[in-house]
């Protein structure tokens, strides 16, 4: 093992979070920085410009995803089962490489609603202290929407988000989301073009009286230069967005924004193929990180300040592997690391097929569509419904690459043979779909810890996920399917309508969502959180852990925008408060 | 495009499309001879429907110089045209012809060649599968597979827990399918009629037979005229592959070979895309996306053609 020369700051992972923080430190300090990234550095040119239209390579074989042959997770629905490894991809798709999962994200970029940040106290105030089920571990974030607003704004400007404000400084705006919290400014870019099938959802839902608005988009809706001088191309609606890099640099991605800005400081070195497996610490101070380099050799990188900014899974696993913070114990309901693991609730959706319309479904972009928040969280009265929560209902058309998207086909269509051919030839280009992206509340029994049996390629324990839906989510999905989903689908004027029905147990097998949260939750109480509201470890003050792992529970939105805001908040608190006086910030 | 519009495959002869040139025809005829020699046993047992597609592989066609000048195919043309192009590669990297013939026959029922257009045969699905499953022991359908044990049986929500890699799953599944055909119809899968093959595949998709490849133990193939390996069940073996799992695997890989970009070895001449109207690798739909309810009339473009446009020609 080699001990490398000490540096000022070391970043574990170099995706969105750490490229934001490195870019800010690079602009405002002269600190020397090292970024350790387990995957390769791929950029618009040559990688994506010359190769991105390959569904087999990127979408099916997952060229931009974490290499499961080296590191995966184990999964079980409840503690009584033996967790088994996820041997092939299914439910979610963590990224790998410089820029992280944001290289292959779709670009849907939300700000969470105001009452998402005080979710428990909001519900207790409105419905009484016993409204939320006893086994929920839902908690307030310790920061308000207003606290995060400047950081949301910074993130949206850097990544060139396009959309229409629904609330500007408290004044409701026509055409935007009237449920959103007040924005200090309009979106940096206007909304983009919309695929035909998404307008059928918009028209039907608007006619029914719902507040439908353009989905906020990280697919750059024009040529855009951000405050750091980085330029994004305009989205071409090529239909290869999710699971792909962008061929024209139009996706709000670190590789075209914060990574070049951070590198421009001249104070950053990014090391590819560096697999960090431990944070070394003593007496409440971190001293170095240990990693395996591209040849499998162990290296130790000392630093004064360590910032962990990987995907939710590795943020939590690294804390457990490093023995920092008390691991969560679901039996005793003690400990914090691994607590409040949450996901994203699916199952409420509809597809409409048309005999008289051609959709050109292969044209699209990750965030090209419309949403509505009339049934999100507590935007509607839950009295007597038998559940809490909800979600954003949206229609977007990300493209229709045919290995995975030759369907959906009408109910009863054959899945192979001449009957399948007839159905797919007729209906491939004639469907319009929409769905609810539902909330995932936190429960005492859903958590992550280290697996006792299965190991990664370097011999370290895999992360073990114990997770299932509860009757609350099952009732929620059923009600939303039977009410707004059915109502809107029937109003869309198609020839055939299919709506979702009920959900049972969570399964690791089908793809659902790459939105994983919790494990290193933020908060104001060290007995129920891993980091404080500056995302600083309660136990090791020169260690910051930032990401969706900080969410106490997950609303019915994509997490990326809020992860970006948290990264800007962490950068601000490090620069303005920690560096002048290193030590605990809370 | 070919003017050959007879889309219904002759069950007794390999699919022979009219080549564009006499040179190509000569090559093709030579390959036919080679194939007959290779499949002598099959022919002797009357299994002449064991069609290994010979008209295939866009990548190799490009290597031959045939696609030096990309010619995109406008949408709206007759989608039922059959592919042409000189076959320049007919070998298999992993399958032996016995296995390839069974995969080919099954794929041809999953996506048949019919009046709606070309099927798995013309797309070269079996060649796609042969190349793709042979890219390394850990490469599975979804890319690199976690292959460390222990291998335990779990709940359906926990996913595939097989200890076999994809090549072994194909090997075992192919034998088991052929054995099931022998048990059910008294002949190998390839020799069965299309209706019998459909019945066998339907059974698999519905979970029959229950002991499909459970503890499968294969004996050597005899050197006589028996095409199918002798199979026996050894329940002490823990490796298993369910009928539904094997069918799903066959279907997924067939769909991938039909719809993936031709650069990956299937979807020859973009026949899969033309069947449904997916135009391929278009750099931009900026001017088209808001032409609502207007069918797109642009070209079909493969990744190889796109890379040529990007100055990627070597």
State the total count of DSSP E strands of chain B: 6
Class computed from helices, strands and strand pairing of chain A: alpha/beta
List the strand order in the largest sheet of chain B: 1-6
By secondary-structure content and strand pairing, the structural class of chain B works out as mainly alpha
Q: Find the count of extended strands of chain A (DSSP E, 2+ residues).
A: 24
Low-confidence stretches of chain B: 1-71, 76-88, 219-239
- Unreliable spans of chain A are none
The helical percent of chain A reads 10-25%
* Number of H- or I-type helical stretches of chain B: 11
Rounded radius of gyration of chain B (Å)? 21 Å
Mass-distribution shape of chain B? globular
How would you sum up the global shape of chain A?
Answer: globular
Count of individual helical segments of chain A: 12
Q: What average pLDDT do the residues of chain A reach?
A: 97
The run of helices and strands of chain B is: HHHEHHHEEHHEEHHEH
Distance between the termini of chain A: 36 Å
The description of the largest β-sheet of chain A is: 8 strands, mixed
Termini Cα gap of chain B: 25 Å
Strand content of the residues of chain B, in percent? under 5%
Q: How can the largest sheet of chain B be summarized?
A: 2 strands, antiparallel
């Amino acid at each position: 093992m080699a001990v490398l020369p000490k540096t000022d700051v070391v970043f574990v992972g170099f995706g969105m979070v750490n490229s934001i923080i490195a870019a800010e430190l690079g602009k405002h300090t002269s600190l020397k920085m090292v970024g350790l990234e387990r995957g390769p550095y791929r950029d618009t040119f040559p990688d994506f410009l010359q190769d991105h239209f390959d569904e087999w390579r990127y979408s099916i074989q997952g060229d931009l995803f974490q290499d499961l042959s080296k590191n995966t997770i184990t999964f079980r629905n409840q503690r009584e089962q033996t967790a088994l490894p996820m041997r092939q991809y299914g439910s979610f798709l963590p990224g790998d490489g410089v820029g992280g999962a944001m290289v292959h994200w779709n670009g849907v970029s939300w700000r969470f609603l105001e009452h998402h940040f005080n979710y428990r106290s909001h519900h207790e105030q409105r419905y009484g202290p016993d409204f939320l089920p006893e086994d929920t571990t839902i908690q307030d974030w310790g920061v308000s929407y207003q606290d995060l607003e400047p950081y949301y704004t910074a993130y949206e400007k850097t990544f060139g988000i396009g959309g229409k404000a629904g609330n500007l400084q408290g004044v409701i705006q026509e055409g935007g989301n009237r449920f959103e919290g007040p924005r200090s400014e309009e979106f940096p870019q206007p909304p983009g073009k919309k695929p035909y099938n998404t307008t059928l959802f918009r028209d039907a839902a608007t006619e029914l009286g719902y507040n439908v608005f353009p989905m906020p988009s990280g697919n750059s809706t024009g040529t855009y230069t951000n405050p750091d001088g980085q330029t994004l191309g305009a989205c071409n609606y090529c239909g290869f967005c999710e699971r792909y890099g962008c061929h024209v640099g139009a996706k709000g991605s670190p590789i075209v924004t914060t990574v070049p800005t951070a590198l421009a400081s001249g104070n950053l070195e990014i090391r590819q193929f560096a697999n960090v497996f431990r944070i070394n610490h003593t007496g409440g101070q971190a001293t170095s990180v240990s990693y395996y380099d591209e040849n499998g050799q162990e290296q130790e990188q000392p630093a004064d300040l360590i910032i962990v900014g990987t995907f939710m899974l590795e943020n939590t696993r690294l804390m457990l592997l490093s023995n920092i913070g008390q691991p969560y114990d679901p039996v005793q309901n003690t400990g914090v690391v691994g607590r409040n693991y949450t996901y994203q609730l699916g199952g409420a959706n509809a597809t409409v097929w048309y005999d008289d319309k051609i959709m050109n479904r292969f044209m699209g972009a990750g965030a090209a569509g419309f949403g509505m928040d009339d049934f999100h969280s507590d935007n509607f009265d839950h009295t007597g419904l038998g559940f809490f929560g909800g979600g954003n209902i949206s229609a977007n058309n990300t493209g229709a690459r045919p290995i995975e998207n030759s369907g959906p086909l009408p109910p009863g269509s054959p899945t192979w043979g001449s009957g399948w051919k007839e159905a797919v030839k007729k209906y491939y280009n004639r469907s319009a779909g929409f769905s609810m992206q539902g909330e995932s509340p936190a429960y005492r029994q859903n958590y992550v810890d280290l697996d006792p049996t299965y190991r990664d390629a370097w011999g370290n324990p895999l992360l073990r996920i114990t997770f299932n839906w509860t009757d609350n989510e099952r009732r929620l999905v059923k009600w939303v399917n039977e009410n707004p989903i059915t109502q809107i689908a029937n109003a869309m004027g198609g020839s055939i309508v299919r709506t979702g029905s009920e959900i049972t147990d969570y399964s690791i097998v089908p793809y659902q969502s790459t939105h994983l949260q919790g494990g290193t939750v933020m908060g104001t109480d060290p007995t129920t959180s891993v980091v404080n509201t500056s995302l600083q470890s309660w136990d090791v003050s020169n260690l910051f852990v930032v990401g969706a792992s900080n969410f106490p529970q997950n609303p019915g939105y994509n997490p990326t925008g809020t992860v970006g805001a948290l990264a800007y908040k962490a950068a601000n608190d490090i620069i303005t408060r920690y560096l002048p006086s290193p030590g605990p910030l809370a | 495009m070919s003017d050959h519009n007879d889309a219904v495959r002759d069950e007794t002869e390999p699919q022979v499309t009219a080549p564009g040139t006499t040179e190509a025809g000569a090559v093709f005829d030579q390959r036919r001879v080679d194939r007959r020699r290779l499949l002598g046993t099959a022919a002797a047992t009357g299994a002449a429907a064991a069609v290994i597609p010979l008209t295939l592989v866009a990548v190799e066609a490009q290597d031959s110089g045939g696609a030096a000048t990309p010619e995109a195919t406008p949408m709206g043309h007759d989608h039922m045209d059959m592919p042409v192009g000189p076959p320049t590669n007919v070998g298999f990297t992993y399958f032996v012809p016995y296995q390839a013939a069974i995969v080919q026959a099954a794929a041809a029922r999953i996506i048949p060649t019919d009046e709606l257009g070309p099927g798995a045969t013309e797309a070269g699905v079996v060649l796609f599968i042969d190349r793709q499953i042979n890219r390394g022991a850990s490469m599975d359908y979804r890319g690199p597979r976690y292959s460390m044990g222990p291998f335990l049986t779990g709940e359906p929500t926990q996913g595939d827990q097989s200890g076999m890699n994809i090549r072994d799953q194909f090997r075992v599944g192919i034998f088991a399918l052929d054995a099931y055909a022998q048990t059910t119809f008294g002949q190998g899968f390839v020799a069965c009629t299309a209706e019998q093959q459909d019945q066998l595949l339907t059974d698999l998709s519905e979970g029959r037979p229950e002991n499909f490849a459970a503890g499968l133990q294969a004996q050597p193939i005899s050197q006589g005229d028996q095409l199918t390996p002798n199979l026996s069940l050894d329940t002490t073996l823990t490796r298993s592959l369910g009928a539904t799992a094997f069918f799903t695997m066959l279907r997924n890989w067939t769909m991938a070979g039909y719809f993936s970009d031709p650069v990956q070895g299937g979807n020859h001449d973009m026949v899969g895309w033309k069947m449904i109207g997916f135009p391929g690798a278009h750099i931009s739909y900026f001017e088209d996306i808001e032409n609502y309810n207007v069918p797109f009339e642009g070209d079909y473009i493969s990744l190889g053609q796109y890379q040529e446009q990007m100055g990627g020609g070597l």
